[in-house]
Amino acid sequence: MTAPSGVLVVGASAAGLSTAEALRRKGYQGRLTVLGAEPHLPYDRPPLSKQVLAGAWDPERARLRPQAALSALEAEFLLADPAVGLDTETRTVHTASGRALRADAVVVATGLGPRTLAGQAGLAGVHTLRTLDDAVALRADLLASSRLVVVGDGVLGAEIAATARGMGLAVTMAGPRPAPLAGQLGPVVAGLLADLHTERGVRLRLGAGVSGLTGHHGRVTGVRLDSGEVLPADVVVVAVGADPATGWLAGSGLRVDNGLVCDSRCRAAEGIYAAGDVARWRHVTLDALIRLENRTNATEQATVVAANILGDDQPYRPVPYFWTDQFDARIHVHGTPSADAEVTVVDGDLAGRRFVAVYRRDGAITAVLGWNMPKQARLRRGQIGDALPDLAPAP
Amino acid sequence: MKINVDEAKCCGAGQCVLLAPEVFDQRDDDGVVILLEAEPSEHLHAAVREAAAVCPAAAIELSEST
Question: Which cofactor(s) does the record list (chain A) (predicted)?
Answer without folding.
Answer: FAD
